Amino acid sequence: IAFNKPVGVISTMSDPEGRSNLGDYFKDRSDRLFHVGRLDKDSEGLILLTNDGELTFRATHPSYGLEKTYIIQFEGKLPVGVEKTLTKGVELEDGIARVLSFKELSPTWLEVTIHEGRYHIIRRLMAAVGIDVLRLIRTKFGPISLGETAEGRWRDLNSGELLNLQKALDI
Fold it and tell me: Which residue(s) pair with 2 in the sheet?
C-alpha cells in the first residue's frame, strides 16, 4: 500500500498515548499491516505498508540501498557550494551522510535523493549545511512514487509497481 502520510501522524500502527498514527487510517482492514520504514511526525508524504515481513525487512535494511527522494521547502538562500558539499558528504554525530542527487526546483524548493534511512537524516543534513527546512515531503521510495495520492489517502500498489519493488529488493 502507498500512503500519503500527513504532518502530525506518527509512524506506528497504534499509540498508547492516543496520538494520530498510521493505524488510524487502516482500522477497517482485517489484515495486519507493517509500515516500511518511518517518517517523523513533522514530515509528510509516501510511506509504504505491507503484510509481507520479508519485504519490510529488505526495504528497510541498509544493504539493499533503496533510494528515497524528498522535496524540501526551505527558508533563506542556499549556501554557496551546498550541492557539492551534500553530494561529497557531511560529518554528522553518527557518521558521514550524503545525498545521491540534489536539484534546486525553485528559489524555495529542493529535491534530494538518499539511500539510507537514519534518524531525521534529511533534517540533520540540511541543518549541518545551514538550510532551514520548512516542509519535508517524501515523494519516492525505491521504484514507488507518491504520484497523485492525496494527503491522508492510500492506494494499493499495481502489479507493475509491486514487481519493480520486488526486483529492487531481490525477492
Answer: 48, 155
Phi and psi torsions of 87, nearest 5°: -80, -30
For residue 99, what are the CA distances in angstroms to 89, 112, 114? 7, 6, 5
Q: How far apart are CA 152 and CA 140, in angstroms?
A: 16
DSSP character string of 77-132: PPPTTHHHHHHH-EEETTEEE--SEEEEEETTEEEEEES---TTHHHHHHHHTT-E
Per residue in 89-106, pLDDT tens? 999 998 999 999 999 999
Question: Would you call 53 helix, strand, or coil by DSSP?
Answer: helix
Q: Which residues are catalytic?
A: 40
Backbone φ, ψ for residue 18 (5° rounding):
80, 15
Q: Is the pTM of this model over 0.70?
A: yes
In the block, residue with C-alpha cell 488510524: 24
